[in-house]
Design a protein that fits this description.
single chain, about 280 residues, alpha+beta, D-amino Acid Aminotransferase, Chain A, domain 1, D-amino Acid Aminotransferase, Chain A, domain 2, five-stranded antiparallel sheet, 8 helices, globular, binds 4'-deoxy-4'-aminopyridoxal-5'-phosphate
Length: about 280
């Protein structure tokens, strides 16, 4: 989760959505979390305050099975909960918000449905994400677009993806290979607000090369234009107008400059602050 300094104090974006996803992920893995979402929310704000991170930070609540059983039955291990937080700047580089990033298509696929549950934000999924991300960087790219085992576009190593063509937005469905991103949902709502047609349907890889615009969404990534894929320029090879519009709107929301919009869109429970 990210926390931003807003006129009303530090506020966490999509706080309740993130905590719900954490608890849902635990349920899938048969982990009984000994805390409520409310208690976890309080812990997040406590950690931010205690560490003086009031200018904004990244918070990563984690629930795990600690030291105990060695075998595959995790019940013998104690459930431990951690709430680390730290200052973390623009994940893919501050300049990239305006210029866009260069991406490659990953040679690794995302996990197939019914293998590692894609809807769970589980640490094990990030073994696959690391393969994808490190390969991209080794090839001189900032990020990668990964395909599912069906060959259709899935997502980035830690981002959902959107395609813009002829003024229309397209994003892959949540199909067991990708995470149901909260920023994705927000971008979908912002597209609707902007009167853009939105389609959620399987995206073939080749649709990416001929897109007018491509962008990633994610909590760490925020809304990030993709200017090339596999060294093929996307559109004009720079941030496009629709990406910029959604990006600006998202920035306004998370920085607390668009409270009205937040309520109107229900986009989020976007900002949660115990000071409001
Ligand atoms: N996909 C993956 C694999 C991710 O790790 C993330 C980041 N949490 C996302 C998508 C984007 O999700 P969100 O917008 O909720 O941060």
């Amino acid at each position: 989760m990210r926390c931003y300094q807003t006129p009303k104090g530090p506020a966490i974006v999509h706080l309740h959505g993130h905590l719900r996803r954490l608890l849902d992920s635990c349920k899938m893995y048969r982990i009984e979390v000994p805390y409520t979402a409310e208690q976890l929310a309080t812990a997040c704000f406590d950690v931010i305050e205690a560490n003086g991170l009031t200018n904004g930070c990244y918070i990563r609540p984690m629930v795990l099975r600690g030291y105990g059983a060695v075998g595959m039955d995790g019940k013998g291990s104690p459930i431990e909960t951690y709430v680390p937080a730290w200052e973390w700047g623009a994940y893919l580089g501050a300049d990239a918000f305006a210029t866009g990033i260069d991406c490659g298509t990953a040679s690794w696929s995302r996990p197939a449905p019914n293998t590692f549950p894609g809807m769970a934000k589980a640490a094990g999924n990030y073994n696959n994400a690391q393969l994808i991300k490190m390969e991209a960087q080794a090839n001189g790219f900032v990020e990668a677009v990964a395909l599912g085992t069906d060959g259709m576009v899935s997502e980035g190593s830690g981002q959902n993806i959107f395609v813009v063509r002829d003024g229309e937005l397209l994003t892959p469905p949540i199909n067991g290979s990708n995470l149901q991103g909260l920023t994705r949902s927000c971008a979908m709502q912002l597209a609707e607000e902007a009167g853009l047609r939105l389609r959620v349907e399987p995206v073939p890889r080749e649709a990416l090369y001929v897109a007018d615009e491509l962008f990633f969404t994610g909590t760490a990534t925020e809304v990030m234009p993709i200017r090339s894929l596999d060294r093929i320029p996307i559109g004009d090879g720079k941030r496009g107008p629709i990406t910029e519009r959604i990006q600006t709107r998202y920035q306004d929301i998370i920085n607390g400059r668009a409270d009205d919009v937040v309520d109107e869109l229900g986009c989020v429970g976007t900002l949660s602050s115990r000071y409001t």
